[in-house]
Amino acid sequence: MEAADAELDRRFMALALALAGRGLGNAWPNPAVGCVLVQDGHIVGRGWTQPGGRPHAETEALARAGGDAQGATCYTTLEPCAHHGETGPCVEALIAAGIARAVVALEDPDPRVAGRGNAMLEAAGIEVARGCTENRAKALNAGFLSRVERGRPLVTLKLASTLDGRIGTHTGDSRWITGEAARARGHLMRARNDAVMVGAASALADDPALTCRLPGLGSQSPVRVVIDGGARLPTSHALIAGACEHRTWIVSTQELDGDGRHAGWREAGVEVIEVTAEANGRPAPGAALEALAARGLTRVLVEGGGRLAASLLDAGLVDLIEWFRAPGAIGGDGVPALAALGVDRANDMPRFRRVSSASVGEDVLDTLVPAG
Predict the structure, then answer these.
(1) Could you give the CA distance from residue 82 to residue 120 in angstroms, rounded to a whole number?
(2) Are 16 and 76 in contact (CB under 8 A)?
(3) CB atoms within 10 A of CB 98
(4) Which residues are annotated as catalytic?
(5) 162 CB-near residues (< 8 Å, 6+ apart)
(6) What is the CB-side half-sphere exposure of residue 269 using CA atoms within 13 A?
(7) Measuring CA to CA, which residue among 151, 142, 72 is closest to residue 299?
């Protein structure tokens, strides 16, 4: 392919990736996919995965293109599905529409697809170009890839602390450590994740709503997940009382049911997920994430508290850290962002690599990934 043609493919795939991003946080259990149909250099159809995972991006783009899809090039961020589900395979729809060429950023690792979609297109005489902006497509759908390949969702740990790593004063006051711009960015993170997770102690201390309250994005509030092995959350808590309005799941253990508390949660509309307990009686973090993945979640934002964050870090289950740092200090008597990790030597501490740093109002947002 000539350089000019390759550059054109990258440009149209960039548009498809931008469309795919619209599905983050609401396309689960399916991947967030974008599709652009191009005829003679002009876009004739575009689509992205709709809420709940249906319709798929290709179906949406074909519906908009109509007869103009005949002879067009299809740019899709993920290999078209080749299996029958609630609807027919997208690859069959593309073949029936008469597209001439397909540019596919990433092969779908789902065993039901795994190359079959591309092979079916080629068998129908359609040219398939693979791997255009593949790394960008992987990054966008890292959550879906994690659920398929590792059996757990992508885990993002969000921290909002002072320069000395404190999230509250010695009295427990924490409003507000960071500024308004940082809090708005945090709400946007909620909208782009399938679920937001907190521990029971944070839920009891902070009484959080765990919804997205940005104008126009209220409908994209994530599933609210509370880790509560000891069944501490009373049925009168706002998270429980509002479970019928906002989907709420509680991960707990059968061993510590709190005198039948689970039944009360279920009556209030909460989905109770019982997992195995660690020696300390708390839900095993790995088992909790596997249970969430089994229910379709691909991206989980962890917002607190320190004990939950420490347990995930200790188990090596944090894929991304979004750390908001406020330009102030509270001191050693403040509440730490992380509970004890039991690290004896500095060389043994979990290490991360900063990939970006940006000013958000008066605060700084560092994005970090595991150093390994």
Answers:
(1) 8
(2) yes
(3) 13
(4) 58
(5) 177, 325, 326, 328, 329, 330, 334
(6) 15
(7) 142
Instruction: Tell me the C-alpha distance between 198 and 361, whole Å.
Output: 25
* DSSP label of 211: -
Per-residue model confidence as pLDDT tens digits over 117-172: 999 999 999 999 999 999 999 999 999 999 999 999 999 999 999 999 999 999 98
Per-residue pLDDT at 256 = 64
Angle at 78 between CA 295 and CA 287, to 5 degrees: 25
Distance of CA 310 to the CA centre of its chain: 20
Over residues 15-26, mean pLDDT: 96
- DSSP 8-state code for residue 44: E
Residue 157, classed as helix, strand or coil, is strand
Question: How remote is the C-alpha of 251 from its chain's centroid?
Answer: 18
- The three-point CA angle 82-87-90 to 5° equals 40
Based on its alpha-carbon atoms, the radius of gyration of the chain, rounded to whole angstroms, reads 23
Q: How many CA atoms lie within 13 A of 113 on its CB side?
A: 21
Type of residue at 244:
C
Per residue in 81-97, is it b (16+ CB within 10 Å) or e — as a string? bbeeeeeebbbbbbbeb
Closest CA to 147 of 249, 52, 226, 31: 31
pLDDT tens per residue across span 31-53: 999 999 999 999 999 999 999 99
Q: What is the mean pLDDT of the chain?
A: 93
**Mutual orientation of helices 90-97 and 57-65 as an angle, nearest 10°?**
20
Closest listed residue to residue 154, CA positions, set 192, 116, 125? 192
DSSP 21: G
* Whether pLDDT at 197 is above 90: yes
185-200 burial, b if ≥16 CB within 10 A, otherwise e?
Answer: bbbebbbbbbbbbbbb
Structure tokens at 253: 């253990």
Chain position carrying tokens 């998270």: 239
Is the separation of the CB atoms in 266 and 233 below 8 Å?
Answer: no
**Is 137:14 a contact under the CB 8 Å cutoff?**
no
- Dist CA 128 CA 115 (whole Å): 11
Exposed e or buried b per residue across 305-319, where buried means at least 16 C-beta atoms within 10 angstroms of its C-beta: bbbbbbbbbbeebbb
Kind and range of the H or E run holding 291: helix 285-294
Q: 0.85 exceeded by the pTM?
A: yes
